[in-house]
Specification:
heterodimer; A: 274 residues; 74% helix
């Protein structure tokens, strides 16, 4: 091929890592400016607002409310919701906006392209969720319990939130790549794996929620509407399944790694009809 | 192998269409792509050299599919494409050397034109400063410097077309692909884009431009590939297409205020074979279209007949496809 480049064209580095970093910065900046991010952050802060209002009328056991809300609201609902909003559109937004052409025709290897965009999505999910949990903790401690007394609890809760945000975001990004659609596959996954399977003893290990409770040290029976579940657990097992925290962590890391690998592989060979 | 000096129907399945100047830059062999049961392109073999090459065909002919296969956006069902000897699909080394102007009107709308081009140029491996400088040059080339600071969401259709061209040019690619680049542009923007494409070709780059409008391509190049129903039906020199159009009988519709009088005057000429009256005018069939086209306005002027329209379905690209594809 004739080299038609001008002699004064600056040199460039086609290192995949550098290209990936450039794309990561671009994507993160775009997401930070998006209205969707602001709306989602506001939703994540709803428990904080509710707790602030509750403080006016009710005497709260702050640390107990914090623990129950993390286990009953953040981990099963708010974290998956944030992940669905940030993770699902990782690639789908570019396809639906028909801008994917601009990215796939840059000399960025497809797997790096996916990884860079996923990293930006994960960072936003983790950031919005963690900020919200920390703010919620601060408000709860105003109601009693003391700021420093619950730091251990906050640490484990934040750990579970970060790992959960990362795992769910990757799963929803994978679903977006495979089905080229965000909402429906994400909702189906959430209902089937996290709500239905996640409520059945033993097979609940297939849900992310189970492992998040394990690594955060939260009581699953407190988190769910326990009647049916407790009966089932007593029927099938002598005692509920209990694992050390690191088992939950390793499980989430493995789920994240597998989802990333599958998504990158699918994305690598995918054609986009835009 | 075809010489590419004259327009000629592609007759043999084994033939490779050769077009453009200099060495072969882009090569396709037995390229096919299907959308389920629907054919996109079928068994296309091409060698394209330097300079501007027009990819002409009616809507739905397979032009965009061919361009997408050539730029690695689609993976052919059969066959192969190489650019500079390298396989295209999923090959970053090739993407570093090509520029693509997509047909779709899609952007990061919240960005300014300058940001859009700069960010996409950074993804070609340039530093922020170098990318900004290259983007500025490309924006100058497409004459958008004065509006580069504005959000793309505020751009007119023509400006949006030009910013798409700028993002494809900024990294100085050796091969450029334009998918319907003049669609929606105003006459001035159209002229500038045509001039730019010609300049890129003159610089020795390989420039492939798809269009369904004959005169658009005519203004850019005389080298064309005609594609219809997913196959290359002819390739070569555009001037020959004009001759082919004129070699075939034409049926011309004349819309005027005194059709019977006008028709009677035309009937005196030997090349006129039939006359058929309709509501507001008449159809005249001729064996010598070129002469007849110049005769009609002249007679109207001499006889003071109001000539409202003079059109023919045989005087455009679709007619050529009718001749070439029985």
């Amino acid at each position: 091929m004739a080299d038609s480049s001008n002699n004064d064209t600056p040199s460039r580095q086609l290192s995949p890592i550098r290209l990936g970093l450039n794309l990561y910065k671009l994507d993160l900046a775009r997401k930070l400016r998006a209205r969707k991010t602001v709306i989602l952050f506001a939703i994540q802060l709803l428990p904080v607002a509710v707790a602030l209002l509750a403080l006016i009328w009710v005497d709260l056991d702050g640390l107990q409310v914090f623990e129950e809300t993390v286990a009953g609201v953040y981990l099963p609902f708010l974290i998956p919701l944030a992940a669905l909003f940030f993770g699902g559109p990782t690639i789908v937004d570019e396809v639906e906006g028909r801008t994917i052409t601009y990215l796939t025709l840059r000399p960025v290897p497809r797997s790096i392209l996916f990884a860079a965009k996923l990293a930006a999505s994960v960072l936003l999910t983790v950031a919005t969720s963690t900020i919200s949990v920390i703010a919620f903790y601060l408000v709860c401690t105003l109601g009693g319990g003391g700021l420093t007394e619950g730091l251990d609890l906050l640490g484990w809760a934040a750990f579970a939130v970060v790992v959960g945000a990362k795992t769910y975001t990757t799963i929803f990004a994978l679903l977006g790549v495979v089905f080229a659609s965000t909402l429906l596959p994400g909702i189906v996954y959430y209902v089937v794996f996290e709500l239905i399977i996640g409520a059945v003893p033993i097979v609940e290990m297939l849900s992310v929620k189970f492992h998040l409770y394990t690594l955060g040290g939260f009581d699953r029976t407190d988190a769910d509407d326990g009647g049916a579940r407790e009966t089932l657990e007593q029927f099938l097992l002598d005692q509920p399944l209990e694992f050390d925290w690191w088992v939950g962590f390793v499980a989430c890391v493995l789920i994240t790694a597998a989802a990333t690998l599958i998504a990158a592989t699918v994305f690598r060979s995918r054609e986009f009809h835009v | 192998m075809k010489s590419g000096v004259d327009i000629k129907p592609a007759t043999s399945e084994d033939e490779v269409t050769r077009i453009g100047d200099g060495d072969v830059v882009l090569s396709a062999r037995n390229l096919s792509y299907w959308y389920g049961d629907v054919i996109g392109i079928n068994d296309i073999s091409l060698d394209i050299g330097e300079g501007v090459v027009g990819l002409l065909g009616p809507n739905g002919a397979g032009k965009s599919t061919l361009l997408k296969c050539m730029t690695g956006q689609l993976r052919p069902a059969t066959g192969s494409v190489t650019i500079g000897g390298m396989a295209v699909f999923n090959n970053p080394a090739v993407y570093a050397r090509i520029g693509f102007v997509p047909e779709q009107d899609a952007f990061y709308e919240e960005m300014s034109g300058r940001q859009f081009v700069t960010e996409l140029t950074r993804l070609h491996g340039y530093t922020a400063d170098d990318a900004a400088e290259l983007a500025e040059e490309a924006i100058e080339e497409v004459n958008l410097a004065d509006d580069a600071h504005r959000p793309i969401a505020e751009y007119s259709k023509g400006m949006r077309q030009r910013i798409k061209v700028a993002q494809a040019l900024a990294h100085n690619p050796s091969a450029l692909f334009f998918d319907e680049p003049l669609s929606g542009t105003d006459p001035v923007g159209r002229r500038r884009t045509i001039d730019l494409i010609r300049t890129l070709g003159d610089q020795g780059r390989t420039v492939l431009v798809s269009s369904h409008v004959l005169h658009e391509v005519e203004a850019m190049t005389s080298n064309v590939i005609l594609i219809n129903r997913g196959q290359v039906v002819a390739d070569g020199n555009l001037f020959r297409i004009r001759e082919m159009i004129d070699e075939h009988p034409h049926r011309i519709y004349v819309d005027c205020d005194r059709p019977r009088h006008f028709a009677a005057l035309l009937a005196e000429y030997d090349d006129v074979t039939t006359l058929e009256f309709v509501d507001r005018g008449f159809f005249v069939s001729t064996r010598d279209p070129e002469t007849c086209y110049s005769r009609i306005p002249r007679i109207a002027l001499d006889e003071q007949i109001t000539l409202r329209a003079m059109t023919s379905e045989d005087n455009d690209l679709s007619a050529v496809f009718r001749y070439l594809v029985p």
